[in-house]
C-alpha cells in the first residue's frame, strides 16, 4: 500500500493525505458500504471494507457502548468517532507506533501494554492459560466490554508477540452475550487460540479477505474456560 502511494504523482499523494481524515469522519457519521470503502482506501486500512462494515454495524446497533480494541492503526480515528458518546479504548504494545497514531488522532483513549510473549512459544501458552494473565490498566478491567476487536499485537513472525494473550483476554473481558471479532484467523496461532478460548460453538460468522480472515464470536459465558475434556 505504501509503495502504491509513493508511485503516485505528488498531486494525487497530497489529495489522498488531505482527504484521509475527513473520509474517516464522514464514514463514522454515515457508515455505509460506500463511505467505508472510500475511507479504507484513503487511509490504507488493512481490514477489508466488508469486515469494517460488519464491525461498524454491531457498534452502531449498540452505540453508545463500550468498545475495546487490541491494536491501534489507520482505522483508529474511525472507531473512535463511530462510537459517539460511548467509550472506545485501545491497547498497543508498540510504543513508537502508538505515539505516531495518537499524534494524529486527538483524544484517543489508548494505553501502552507489554505482552512479554513470543509467537514461537504459542503451544506452551495454549496448554497453560495461567501464563496468559497480564496486568492491565484499571479502566480496561473495571467493567466488561460490549464489543472487542482483536487486531493486535503483531503476529506475522516468530519473534512478534503474537495474539495469544489478546485472544485469551478478549474472552475474559467481554460481557456475557458480547461480541468478539478476531482478524487474521487463517493463521495457525489465531486459529488455535480462537478454537481454545472463544470456542467454535460461539462462532457466528467469518468474513474472508485477501489480507486476513475475520471471525465474529458471540460469547455467552465469558471468563475462565475449562480445558477440553477429551
Ligand atoms: C495488524 S495492524 C492492523 C491495524 C488496523 N486495524 C488495520 O486494519 O489497518 C495492528 C498492529 O500492527 C502493529 N504495527 C506496528 N507498526 C505498524 C505500522 N507501521 N502499521 C500498522 N501496524 C503496525 C501494531 O503493533 C498494531 O497493534
Automatic annotation (TrEMBL):
What kind of membrane protein is this, topologically? Single-pass membrane protein
**Localized where?**
Endomembrane system; Membrane
List, in alphabetical order, the GO biological process terms annotated in this UniProt record. xylan biosynthetic process
InterPro entries from the entry?
IRX15/GXM/AGM, SAM-dependent_MTases_sf
Q: Where does the chain cross the membrane? A: none
Q: List the protein's name.
A: Polysaccharide biosynthesis domain-containing protein
Supply the Pfam families for this chain: IRX15_IRX15L_GXM
The organism sits in which domain of life? Bacteria
| GO annotation, cellular component aspect | endomembrane system; membrane
Q: Which organism is it from?
A: Desulfoferula mesophila
Keywords from UniProt, A to Z, are: Membrane, Transmembrane, Transmembrane helix
